[in-house]
Design a protein that fits this description.
about 240 residues, mainly alpha, Arc Repressor Mutant, subunit A, Four Helix Bundle (Hemerythrin (Met), subunit A), 10 helices
Length: about 240
């Protein structure tokens, strides 16, 4: 079993401040309390706080100024494709709306990735996608349905397509969205019927990629996401 890495103290501070910003306790344009006040409130040293501040600057949430202090940046500057920000946004927002937002982005990114994969995938790429699909079939055909195991296999299928598209930027955005989905899947439907209904869409994507049919791959991916969209819970938190 893979062990979780022990988090460093400054990482807790990063998350605490980021969540406050995403929740709106500190709004764009607001100046954070000074270093001394934050250290006292959070019971950390100046060194720990400065490490956390560096990370928040990298993620686009804050900026430092010699006269203005530490200021929350405009939302347009936040790096919302950062895996950590996606996770924190999930924690502070309406998680069902979050899933819907992520699904819209995935439909655009992954359908284009499927189109490119049909043009650019190597024979090895196709074999990898096919192997993942066969594992999906096997997992859904077992008498005992292991949802967590199936999610990992499903992730492997879509990751293989992202890798086969041969566009690092597109794939990077896709991977970030996949990370968000993995965090949010605890809210996803665990109904095996829904997963079985999605299998023909995955098969169609695989067949189109293997046959070098870009438009068919794109169309199959869009149909799959229409199915995903129809089955996202519409509850309000």
């Amino acid at each position: 079993m893979q062990r979780h890495r022990r988090r460093k103290l400054y990482e807790y501070v990063v998350e605490d401040l980021a969540v406050r910003i995403l929740r709106g306790e500190y709004r764009p344009g607001d100046t954070l309390p000074n270093e001394e006040a934050l250290c006292r409130e959070m019971e950390v040293s100046r060194g720990v706080l400065r490490e956390a501040t560096k990370v928040l600057v990298q993620k686009g949430l804050i900026e430092l100024g010699p006269k203005t202090g530490t200021r929350v940046t405009a939302r347009s500057r936040w790096n919302l494709f950062d895996p950590d920000l996606l996770l924190w946004k999930l924690k502070v927002g309406n998680r069902f709306e979050f899933l819907q937002d992520v699904t819209e982005v995935r439909a655009i990114i992954e359908s284009e990735a499927a189109r490119f994969a049909a043009e650019r995938a190597s024979p090895g790429d196709v074999e990898k996608i096919e192997a993942a699909f066969e594992k999906m079939e096997e997992a859904l055909g077992r008498s005992r349905y292991d949802y967590e195991a199936y999610v990992q296999i499903d992730m492997a299928f879509h990751t293989a397509i992202l890798e086969a598209c041969r566009n690092d930027l597109l794939a990077r955005i896709g991977f970030a969205m996949r990370h968000a989905v993995l965090q949010a899947r605890s809210l996803d439907t665990r109904d095996i019927r829904i997963q079985r209904e999605s299998l023909p869409f995955h098969r169609a994507i695989l067949d189109a990629v293997a046959a070098r049919e870009p438009e068919a791959a794109h169309s199959a991916s869009r149909r799959m996401f229409e199915h995903v969209w129809r089955n996202i819970p519409r509850k309000k938190e």
